[in-house]
Write a structure and sequence with these properties.
- The protein is α/β, with parallel strands linked by helices and 274 residues long.
- The chain contains 10 helices and 9 strands.
- Strands 2-1-3-4-5-6 form a 6-stranded parallel β-sheet, with helices on both faces.
- The radius of gyration is 22 Å and the shape is globular.
- The two termini are 41 Å apart.
Protein backbone atom coordinates (compact mmCIF):
# COMPACT_ATOMS: atom_id res chain seq x y z
CA UNK A 1 0.00 0.00 0.00
CA UNK A 2 1.14 3.54 -0.74
CA UNK A 3 1.84 5.82 2.18
CA UNK A 4 -1.00 8.29 2.86
CA UNK A 5 0.33 11.72 3.80
CA UNK A 6 -1.59 14.76 5.06
CA UNK A 7 0.34 17.77 3.71
CA UNK A 8 -0.50 20.51 6.22
CA UNK A 9 0.63 24.03 5.42
CA UNK A 10 -0.50 27.64 5.17
CA UNK A 11 0.95 27.84 1.66
CA UNK A 12 -0.96 26.18 -1.20
CA UNK A 13 1.41 23.35 -2.23
CA UNK A 14 -0.27 23.02 -5.62
CA UNK A 15 0.87 26.54 -6.58
CA UNK A 16 4.47 27.06 -7.65
CA UNK A 17 4.20 30.73 -6.65
CA UNK A 18 3.80 29.93 -2.93
CA UNK A 19 6.97 30.44 -0.88
CA UNK A 20 9.14 30.53 -4.04
CA UNK A 21 7.90 27.06 -4.99
CA UNK A 22 9.31 25.30 -1.92
CA UNK A 23 6.04 23.59 -0.80
CA UNK A 24 5.15 22.80 -4.43
CA UNK A 25 8.36 20.89 -5.10
CA UNK A 26 8.09 19.03 -1.79
CA UNK A 27 4.49 18.15 -2.62
CA UNK A 28 5.41 16.82 -6.07
CA UNK A 29 8.37 14.91 -4.62
CA UNK A 30 6.19 13.17 -2.04
CA UNK A 31 3.56 12.35 -4.68
CA UNK A 32 6.14 10.27 -6.52
CA UNK A 33 5.86 7.55 -3.88
CA UNK A 34 2.81 8.40 -1.73
CA UNK A 35 -0.80 9.54 -1.82
CA UNK A 36 -0.66 13.15 -0.65
CA UNK A 37 -3.59 15.40 0.28
CA UNK A 38 -3.05 19.13 0.88
CA UNK A 39 -4.68 20.57 4.00
CA UNK A 40 -4.58 24.37 4.01
CA UNK A 41 -6.74 25.88 6.77
CA UNK A 42 -9.37 28.29 5.48
CA UNK A 43 -11.03 30.61 7.98
CA UNK A 44 -14.58 31.92 7.75
CA UNK A 45 -15.30 35.61 7.23
CA UNK A 46 -16.39 35.91 10.86
CA UNK A 47 -13.18 34.31 12.07
CA UNK A 48 -11.07 36.64 9.93
CA UNK A 49 -12.96 39.65 11.29
CA UNK A 50 -12.35 38.40 14.82
CA UNK A 51 -8.60 38.29 14.20
CA UNK A 52 -8.55 41.87 12.90
CA UNK A 53 -8.89 43.12 16.46
CA UNK A 54 -5.18 42.48 16.78
CA UNK A 55 -4.51 44.96 13.96
CA UNK A 56 -6.45 47.55 15.97
CA UNK A 57 -4.44 46.56 19.04
CA UNK A 58 -1.27 47.31 17.13
CA UNK A 59 -2.43 50.72 15.96
CA UNK A 60 -3.42 51.70 19.49
CA UNK A 61 -0.20 50.57 21.15
CA UNK A 62 2.28 51.43 18.40
CA UNK A 63 3.47 47.82 18.49
CA UNK A 64 2.98 45.15 15.85
CA UNK A 65 0.94 42.04 16.65
CA UNK A 66 1.14 39.08 14.27
CA UNK A 67 -2.41 37.74 14.06
CA UNK A 68 -1.24 34.62 12.19
CA UNK A 69 1.07 33.84 15.08
CA UNK A 70 -1.60 34.36 17.74
CA UNK A 71 -3.02 31.67 19.99
CA UNK A 72 -6.55 32.28 18.74
CA UNK A 73 -5.50 31.86 15.09
CA UNK A 74 -3.49 28.74 15.91
CA UNK A 75 -6.41 27.13 17.75
CA UNK A 76 -8.74 27.81 14.80
CA UNK A 77 -6.26 26.32 12.35
CA UNK A 78 -5.52 23.28 14.47
CA UNK A 79 -9.25 22.52 14.80
CA UNK A 80 -9.63 22.80 11.02
CA UNK A 81 -6.72 20.39 10.44
CA UNK A 82 -8.06 17.97 13.02
CA UNK A 83 -11.42 17.77 11.22
CA UNK A 84 -9.71 17.18 7.87
CA UNK A 85 -7.51 14.39 9.24
CA UNK A 86 -10.58 12.27 9.93
CA UNK A 87 -10.26 8.78 11.37
CA UNK A 88 -7.77 6.35 9.82
CA UNK A 89 -7.50 8.36 6.62
CA UNK A 90 -3.76 9.09 6.81
CA UNK A 91 -0.53 7.43 7.92
CA UNK A 92 1.35 10.58 8.86
CA UNK A 93 1.26 14.38 8.88
CA UNK A 94 3.88 16.43 7.04
CA UNK A 95 3.76 20.08 8.12
CA UNK A 96 6.17 22.46 6.36
CA UNK A 97 6.21 25.97 7.87
CA UNK A 98 3.02 25.12 9.72
CA UNK A 99 3.67 25.78 13.39
CA UNK A 100 0.35 27.61 13.85
CA UNK A 101 -1.53 24.89 11.98
CA UNK A 102 -0.35 22.05 14.24
CA UNK A 103 0.44 23.69 17.59
CA UNK A 104 -2.90 22.69 19.16
CA UNK A 105 -3.44 19.57 17.08
CA UNK A 106 -4.50 16.41 18.94
CA UNK A 107 -3.52 13.35 16.94
CA UNK A 108 -1.91 9.97 17.36
CA UNK A 109 -0.41 10.18 13.85
CA UNK A 110 3.33 10.70 13.45
CA UNK A 111 4.02 14.37 12.68
CA UNK A 112 6.98 15.66 10.68
CA UNK A 113 7.42 19.41 11.09
CA UNK A 114 9.69 21.26 8.67
CA UNK A 115 10.92 24.85 8.85
CA UNK A 116 13.77 27.09 7.74
CA UNK A 117 13.77 29.18 10.93
CA UNK A 118 12.20 29.33 14.38
CA UNK A 119 9.96 32.15 15.55
CA UNK A 120 12.62 33.33 17.97
CA UNK A 121 15.13 33.73 15.15
CA UNK A 122 12.66 35.82 13.15
CA UNK A 123 12.05 38.40 15.89
CA UNK A 124 13.74 41.64 14.78
CA UNK A 125 15.26 39.76 11.81
CA UNK A 126 12.55 40.49 9.24
CA UNK A 127 10.85 43.88 9.15
CA UNK A 128 7.40 42.38 9.74
CA UNK A 129 8.77 40.59 12.81
CA UNK A 130 10.16 43.83 14.25
CA UNK A 131 8.65 46.12 16.88
CA UNK A 132 6.45 43.31 18.15
CA UNK A 133 4.42 43.59 21.32
CA UNK A 134 5.41 41.40 24.25
CA UNK A 135 2.15 39.49 23.84
CA UNK A 136 2.91 38.76 20.20
CA UNK A 137 6.41 37.50 21.01
CA UNK A 138 5.05 35.35 23.83
CA UNK A 139 2.31 33.86 21.63
CA UNK A 140 4.67 33.21 18.73
CA UNK A 141 7.21 31.42 20.89
CA UNK A 142 4.54 29.35 22.63
CA UNK A 143 3.13 28.22 19.27
CA UNK A 144 6.62 27.31 18.06
CA UNK A 145 7.33 25.38 21.26
CA UNK A 146 4.08 23.43 21.01
CA UNK A 147 4.67 22.57 17.34
CA UNK A 148 8.22 21.40 18.03
CA UNK A 149 7.10 19.36 21.04
CA UNK A 150 4.24 17.73 19.11
CA UNK A 151 6.42 16.68 16.18
CA UNK A 152 7.98 13.24 16.14
CA UNK A 153 10.64 14.48 13.74
CA UNK A 154 11.77 18.05 13.05
CA UNK A 155 13.46 18.90 9.76
CA UNK A 156 15.28 22.21 9.40
CA UNK A 157 17.23 23.57 6.45
CA UNK A 158 20.29 24.84 8.33
CA UNK A 159 22.40 24.40 11.45
CA UNK A 160 21.42 27.99 12.34
CA UNK A 161 17.81 26.85 12.72
CA UNK A 162 18.87 23.58 14.36
CA UNK A 163 20.76 25.45 17.09
CA UNK A 164 17.72 27.60 17.82
CA UNK A 165 15.41 24.59 18.04
CA UNK A 166 17.68 23.03 20.64
CA UNK A 167 18.78 26.09 22.63
CA UNK A 168 15.74 28.36 22.48
CA UNK A 169 13.09 25.64 22.83
CA UNK A 170 14.94 22.88 24.70
CA UNK A 171 14.28 20.22 22.06
CA UNK A 172 16.60 17.17 22.19
CA UNK A 173 19.13 16.97 19.36
CA UNK A 174 18.13 13.41 18.33
CA UNK A 175 14.72 14.76 17.28
CA UNK A 176 16.15 17.22 14.75
CA UNK A 177 17.48 16.56 11.25
CA UNK A 178 19.18 19.12 9.00
CA UNK A 179 18.28 18.81 5.30
CA UNK A 180 19.16 21.83 3.14
CA UNK A 181 16.42 22.92 0.75
CA UNK A 182 16.72 22.07 -2.93
CA UNK A 183 16.92 24.72 -5.69
CA UNK A 184 13.24 24.50 -6.71
CA UNK A 185 14.31 23.80 -10.27
CA UNK A 186 12.77 20.85 -12.11
CA UNK A 187 14.53 21.15 -15.46
CA UNK A 188 17.97 19.56 -15.72
CA UNK A 189 20.62 22.10 -16.68
CA UNK A 190 23.33 21.48 -19.24
CA UNK A 191 25.93 19.10 -17.87
CA UNK A 192 28.69 21.71 -17.85
CA UNK A 193 26.67 24.19 -15.79
CA UNK A 194 28.11 24.41 -12.30
CA UNK A 195 31.36 22.66 -13.21
CA UNK A 196 34.63 24.35 -12.37
CA UNK A 197 35.96 26.33 -15.28
CA UNK A 198 38.29 29.21 -15.90
CA UNK A 199 36.49 32.54 -15.73
CA UNK A 200 37.08 34.49 -18.91
CA UNK A 201 35.70 38.04 -19.15
CA UNK A 202 33.10 39.22 -19.61
CA UNK A 203 31.89 37.83 -16.28
CA UNK A 204 28.12 37.54 -15.97
CA UNK A 205 26.66 37.55 -12.48
CA UNK A 206 23.07 36.59 -11.63
CA UNK A 207 21.15 37.78 -8.57
CA UNK A 208 17.74 36.17 -7.94
CA UNK A 209 15.50 37.35 -5.10
CA UNK A 210 12.36 39.34 -4.35
CA UNK A 211 13.92 41.27 -1.46
CA UNK A 212 16.92 43.33 -2.62
CA UNK A 213 18.15 44.28 0.84
CA UNK A 214 17.58 41.07 2.77
CA UNK A 215 18.87 38.78 0.01
CA UNK A 216 22.12 40.69 -0.41
CA UNK A 217 21.53 42.62 -3.61
CA UNK A 218 23.90 45.37 -2.55
CA UNK A 219 26.71 42.81 -2.19
CA UNK A 220 26.14 41.54 -5.72
CA UNK A 221 26.13 45.11 -7.02
CA UNK A 222 29.35 46.03 -5.20
CA UNK A 223 31.08 42.88 -6.53
CA UNK A 224 30.20 43.94 -10.07
CA UNK A 225 31.48 47.47 -9.44
CA UNK A 226 34.69 46.23 -7.82
CA UNK A 227 35.52 43.81 -10.62
CA UNK A 228 34.99 46.49 -13.25
CA UNK A 229 37.16 48.90 -11.28
CA UNK A 230 39.94 46.29 -11.50
CA UNK A 231 39.56 46.06 -15.26
CA UNK A 232 37.51 42.84 -15.29
CA UNK A 233 34.52 43.37 -17.57
CA UNK A 234 31.53 42.27 -15.49
CA UNK A 235 27.74 42.43 -15.89
CA UNK A 236 24.97 41.82 -13.37
CA UNK A 237 21.45 40.55 -14.08
CA UNK A 238 18.92 41.16 -11.31
CA UNK A 239 15.76 39.04 -11.36
CA UNK A 240 12.86 39.28 -8.93
CA UNK A 241 13.01 42.86 -7.71
CA UNK A 242 13.84 46.45 -8.65
CA UNK A 243 16.93 47.81 -6.86
CA UNK A 244 16.67 51.20 -5.11
CA UNK A 245 17.47 54.21 -7.29
CA UNK A 246 21.02 54.60 -5.93
CA UNK A 247 21.97 51.26 -7.48
CA UNK A 248 22.19 52.29 -11.10
CA UNK A 249 24.69 51.09 -13.66
CA UNK A 250 24.54 50.55 -17.41
CA UNK A 251 26.10 47.10 -16.87
CA UNK A 252 23.15 45.98 -14.73
CA UNK A 253 20.07 44.45 -16.35
CA UNK A 254 16.90 44.34 -14.21
CA UNK A 255 14.08 41.84 -14.70
CA UNK A 256 11.52 42.92 -12.07
CA UNK A 257 9.71 39.58 -11.80
CA UNK A 258 9.15 36.26 -13.55
CA UNK A 259 6.01 34.25 -12.79
CA UNK A 260 7.04 30.60 -12.64
CA UNK A 261 3.43 29.50 -13.06
CA UNK A 262 3.59 30.77 -16.65
CA UNK A 263 5.47 28.48 -19.04
CA UNK A 264 7.22 31.20 -21.06
CA UNK A 265 8.38 33.05 -17.96
CA UNK A 266 9.56 29.82 -16.32
CA UNK A 267 11.62 29.05 -19.42
CA UNK A 268 13.10 32.55 -19.25
CA UNK A 269 13.96 31.89 -15.60
CA UNK A 270 15.86 28.71 -16.51
CA UNK A 271 17.69 30.45 -19.36
CA UNK A 272 19.06 33.00 -16.90
CA UNK A 273 20.86 30.22 -15.02
CA UNK A 274 22.28 28.78 -18.21
Amino acid sequence: MRLRIAFVTSNDPTSITSWSGTPSHMYEGLKSFADVEPICPSLSKLQRLSLRRWDLFGRLTGKRFLSKHSLSYSRLCSRYVQRKLGDGKFDLVFAPAASAEIAFLKTSLPVIYLSDATFNLMVDYYERFSNLSRTSVKDGNLIEKRALSLANRIVVSSHWAENSVQKDYSIPSDKVTVIPFGPNITVAMQSEIGCSKKLIPPIRLLFVGVDWKRKGGETAYMVMKELNSRGVETYLTVCGCVPPDEFDDKRMNVIPFLDKSKKDELESFYRLFE
